[in-house]
Write a structure and sequence with these properties.
This protein has a nine-stranded mixed beta sheet, with helices on both faces. By secondary structure, it is α/β, with parallel strands linked by helices. The C terminus is likely disordered. The protein has twelve helices and 13 strands. α2 crosses α3. The relative contact order is 0.12. It folds into two domains: about 55 residues, DNA polymerase, domain 1, CATH 1.10.150; about 290 residues, Aldolase class I (TIM Barrel, Alpha-Beta Barrel), CATH 3.20.20.
Amino acid sequence: MSTERHASRFAPPKPAADGRIDLIGLDRGELQAALAEIGAEPFRARQLWHWIYHRGVTEFDAMTNLAKDFRARLAERFTVGRPQASADNLSADGTRKWLLRFADGQEVETVHIPEEDRGTLCVSSQVGCTLTCRFCHTGTQGLVRNLGAAEIVGQVMLARDALGEWPSPKDGRLLSNIVLMGMGEPLYNYDNVAKALKIVMDHEGISISKRKITLSTSGVVPMIRRAGAELGVNLAVSLHAVSDELRDRLVPLNRKYPIAELLAALRDYPGLSNARRITFEYVMLKGVNDSPADARALVKLIEGIPAKINLIPFNPWPGAPFECSDWPTIERFGDIVNAAGYASPIRTPRGRDILAACGQLKSESQRVRASARAQLTPTAPA
């Protein structure tokens, strides 16, 4: 299925409810056009942009430099929304996971990972996922639909609400980095992802630099160059295998875009340099892809590509078909990659106790509903 057909088939729902237009997710031009419909001058769009994306205000009455009657008109026609947090879980290591519910009842998970020098928000781009990577819990859910730009930006805004980080601080942010590594394949929802990221990067609003944003893909080759040219964000690629035979099993998208095609697209990624490297994600699966021979083959495969390799200890989930590689095995793999001149940090698992670690995300509501259905289903007679 082409990316265009995919976007059309799994499009987000139309805004509904009371008929008011949610201003979240509108770009500057759309915001100005929406305000023009109620007779507002173009400069009003910049004022609202500041209140919404710099100060995080959700009520028009709080926009104190606007006339009272104008605020009333805004409230009649528009709203400034947020997704609803139907669950909020805190890990023992400080990782925080929200289950976010949207207007149509669909849900995604969003994760904040605090570290000493940064705070990273892992953002979802789809409800479920179009791919079925065998080591990933999200892939067992299947794809329900794409998220709209408002729903993607809304994850960032809700996290900043929860962290008390309005107005937008310049330094010392608790939310300083964004990774599109949550539920979904971002490049199969490119238009909405791109629109959302441009809003997030706008210097008069949330103002997170493109150098602090990483888009992760399983290898949707036709969209890689476009993402680099139009967004210029960092790119991470879920590789996980060094042969097409194994990657076909682990990452079924490889059957459509095999490793050679993927690497050719990465070598042409706009802005690629030693300062702007590709990140290869490599989940460590015991007895599957973790041998010294695999490590040497990986180094040979990516030769000439400015890159680093994130070694990810497999994070288990109920019913998972794999085990995590032993720690000495992971370290030996990393040593081989390091010796070849590639940084290969071993990603410390975060949030495992609340199923918030890499590869563990799946809408809790779907699990609960499935469990409830099982309890209500009559047992067949023996």
